[in-house]
Specification:
This protein is α/β, with parallel strands linked by helices. The protein contains 13 helices and 5 strands.
Length: about 300
């Protein structure tokens, strides 16, 4: 039986050199949370969102070499431990920068997208998903690592319960979902925001080819986005190295007009505010302006 370790990091920023200053996790009913002094200053935006400043961590120990670091390192090596996070790519990368490699992980953001086959979820932020699934979040402090961990655990339980009639072992099923790409149906950004990818492929294949090229260039530099590479390849009729998707969502009826799709900015299966962007990501021109506000929601 797999053990679940729910975890969250708070970080100095979103750039490639940024590091964690808080880690919280919960396993076997036990909660752990601690502040650390990072090797660089906390970005003002991160301080404003989390309420933690350089002064608050000035007398704290560094994470590397701490008891918590040693404990989590040991847990990461256990084959029976599965780490669970929201927007897991970000947290897993932050842990890697601290010398901890996490290989078994479930991302509730990706799982929620996979389960939303009818496009009922309006936002895939942690707090929004909790509201959608009926999780009471009033008692938890947002943008605090432990508060997010406790919300995360309750959300996971709701996601697991939603498939319990079809899958005896939700953890095993979710790990299967994590092992495959998801098929994105609609653009969450740019000039085609809200439009179906299959329609755009027919109308403006050059744009799709350009975006696929950007995603492959990112992947060559270590910033791999399997979902988008798979989806763009799928709708362009190209072979993809990532194989079959975890969930192939039904495509829109051909009778739907492209104008209707383009104007339906909220009817998307990937929330724009939750898209993780690593430093150096090349974005479609229309997305550059909204990146500033989007990044602030990820601390």
């Amino acid at each position: 039986m797999k053990k679940l370790l729910f975890f969250d990091t708070e970080t100095t920023g979103l750039d490639q050199e940024d590091r964690l200053f808080q880690l919280a996790y919960k396993i076997d009913g036990q909660e752990y949370a601690e502040l650390f002094k990072p090797p660089l200053t906390i970005h003002p935006q991160a301080a404003a969102i989390t309420g933690v400043s350089d002064e608050d961590v000035a007398d704290k120990p560094p994470f590397i070499g701490s008891q918590m670091c040693s404990d989590v390192q040991g847990l990461s090596l256990g084959e029976d431990v599965v780490f669970v996070a929201h927007n897991a790519k970000f947290d897993v990368e932050m842990m890697r920068r601290e010398g901890i490699e996490i290989t078994q992980v479930i991302d509730t953001y990706k799982i929620a997208r996979a389960l939303d086959t009818e496009d009922k979820v309006m936002s895939f932020k942690l707090e929004s998903l909790c509201e959608h699934y009926g999780v009471d979040t009033e008692a938890f402090q947002a943008h605090d690592a432990l508060g997010d961990v406790l919300m995360l655990e309750l959300l996971y339980e709701k996601l697991a319960a939603s498939i319990s009639d079809k899958h005896e072992d939700p953890t095993a099923y979710f790990l299967g979902v994590m092992a495959k790409p998801l098929l994105v149906r609609k653009f969450p950004f740019g000039k085609y925001k809200g439009a179906a990818l299959d329609h755009v492929a027919k109308q403006d294949g050059g744009y799709m080819e350009w975006l696929l090229g950007q995603k492959r260039a990112d992947a060559a530099e270590g910033r791999v986005d399997e979902d988008w590479i798979y989806s763009l390849s799928y709708y362009l009729g190209k072979e993809c190295e990532y194989g079959e998707p975890a969930t192939v969502l039904e495509q829109e009826e051909e009778s739907e007009s492209d104008a209707d799709l383009a104007s339906d900015a909220t009817d998307i299966n990937q929330d724009d505010s939750d898209v993780e962007l690593a430093e150096g990501d090349v974005m479609p021109p229309d997305k550059k302006q909204q990146d500033q506000s989007q990044q602030g929601s990820l601390f």
